[in-house]
Amino acid sequence: MPITNLNERLEKNYLPLNDPSAFQRRLKSRQRVIQSFEAKANASRSLAEKIADFITARLGSMGFLFLNGLWFFSWIIINLGLIPGMPPFDPFPFGLLTMVVSLEAIFLATVVLISQNRAAKIDDLRAEVELQINTIAEEEITKMIELQILLLKKNGVDVSGDKELQLMLEPVDTQKLEKSLEKQFR
Prior knowledge:
By secondary structure, the protein is mostly helical. It has one domain (3-178). It is 75% helix and 0% strand. The protein is built from eight helices and no strands. It starts with 5 loop residues before the first helix and ends with a helix. The model has no long low-confidence stretch (mean pLDDT 82).
């Protein structure tokens, strides 16, 4: 952007300096965007997602691991005939135990995947909002540079020959960045 259009751009894009309420409105708007995405997502979970999260939280613990170990140990001890007076109901090679363990693994894996998919959606939303905020921040930084240039010009400092500064004032080509990133992930 040529520096000659700087005044027009400043007048068009900046909050009025004499209107403090404009800044407060902008700040409140940003605070709404930044609120906890996980809290919002948790509030809008379906019943199935709530159940999956509950099961994942309870079964993904050392207590559950200990109970599972105790259960399997007891099953094996009983079915090896090591406890007098208790006849084996699933003799070696423990076909029923194998089926129970397989079914447990299937259901637990499915429940965990449901919870992980929801968490991935929250992460995707956070990443998108972060990208938007970073884009806004980049634009605001560029505007701050423009304001500084204005002040320098008013004080008689010529920065028109600064090539690096000129590059900083150029808008970021997000499509070019996106294509570059896509190439890296292929």
